[in-house]
Amino acid sequence: MSGAAPTPGRAGCLLALLQTSASMARPCRYRGRKVQRLRAARFCLDQTIEALLALREAGDPIVEGLRVGVLDFAGASLLPGDSGALLPPLEELAGLAGAQRRRSEVRRWVMALKPSEEGPPLEQALAEASRLLVSWMAASPDGRPPLLLICSDGAGEGPEAERLRRSLSLLATTWGPLRTAEARFGSEEEVCPGAALTINRPFFPMVEGLMRQWGERGRVSAPSDLPALTRPGSPGLCEMRLLTTPKRGNSEEECEDGALCRPEEGLAAVCDGAGEGIFTRRWVQRLLDSYAVERPDVTDRTAFLDWLQRCRQEWFGEIGFDGLRGYQQNKVLDTGAGGTFLAWQLGEAGPDGSFAWRAWAVGDACLFWVRRDVLWATFPMAHWRHFGLTPCLLRSRRDVPVPAPVFAAGRCLPGDVFFLATDAVAQELLRCVAEGQGPSWDELLTLSEEGWRERIERLRDAGRITNDDSTLLSVRV
């Protein structure tokens, strides 16, 4: 990019998760007093919201466009208001009157709850947080990095919690990665076990410091945070295999899934065409071919939109619009074609032998990061129940809003495997993970094309997977 240095947009997001299970009824020592854990956590969050509202009154730009959410582990909002929004604007809270406390000027903003006997596990809360934050990022081009706060005592964490934590840590905007802070409300003797944040010092300065980091660092360009997709340098060698089968009843020529495999460049992508469109297969191929050649800098909103516009113009020319029948022209103009898109890029090796990698996505195609046959993290989907009928799409129509790409970045080791899957396959893989039934990632890595078709047909017969084009692209680093 040239010219003046860009500045982040005015969109921001702070999401807090509050544990309300029975263990939060136990005491902790807070500010020298013995206090119920849940009560101490609520006070810290009330204090945070009060401070954010004070910054708003002072005209501080850090809270411009800020959305704030406080959820219990079941995903229910604990903030006042009638809008039903899980991430309401701070402006909306400013129009409400928090209940006054008798012994403190900090008003009550988080709804009073009694600890429940059996609260949902942390995994459920982290999965919902991932869904909300990915949706917010897709709707907030050039937004500031979101902040996730987890207030708990660490009790009842299941085996999936670490995988979901890693998945969340991959998420990034063009200005930097999502930031996560955990406040542990532990026993009376040990308030903050491990490396958790101490709650016996002012809570909000920690939150404010994390929110202001984007201003100190500026636009992210370091390979450790967001390695460049456009000029990967000397990418590490990797092996790729593509498995795909069309919707039952369709031929190979009617398949509207597409893939890009460039192992010599460390570049992989999948594109899943939306079935309700017209000339969708051509649109999918146009997006993939153009991306392979142009390699646009999708972190630059202008460059991303310019690339999409060129794809639209080329597709419009390829379909021969003037020679189409009237009903076809109408569908081109009214519906057009659309597709989800997921791209993955391997970067250079670091001194420790690890490789930088980065991915971006629009829609519900999903990346699975596997290490030693164990699922390490996923992007951008975290749970099989989060797949819907209307994912974000890159569309051929020029008069529809364009969703922002969602980004992920990390460092992988030699031997790590990445799977890029279109939605039907991705949903089934995540369902298997949720049910604790696998899958065997090593088996998927070595599956033949015939074995893949047979596997998909069995899943269709069992009602485990929707009848849709099914694609899985594997990459071994």
Descriptive notes:
By secondary structure, the chain is an alpha+beta fold. The chain has 2 domains: about 10-215, Rossmann fold (3-Layer(aba) Sandwich); about 240-475, Phosphatase 2c, domain 1 (4-Layer Sandwich). Helix content is about 30%, strand content about 25%. The protein is built from 11 helices and 19 strands. The protein has helices spanning about 35-55, 90-95, 120-140, 160-170, 205-215, 280-295, 300-320, 325-335, 425-435, 440-445, 450-460; strands at about 10-20, 25-30, 35, 65-70, 145-150, 170-175, 175, 180-185, 240-245, 255-260, 265-275, 340-350, 355-360, 365-370, 375-380, 395, 405-410, 415-420, 470-475. Strands 6, 7, 10, 11, 12, 13, 16 and 17 form an 8-stranded antiparallel sheet that branches. Helix 3 packs parallel to helix 4 (about 160-170) and helix 6 packs across helix 7. About 45% of the residues are buried.
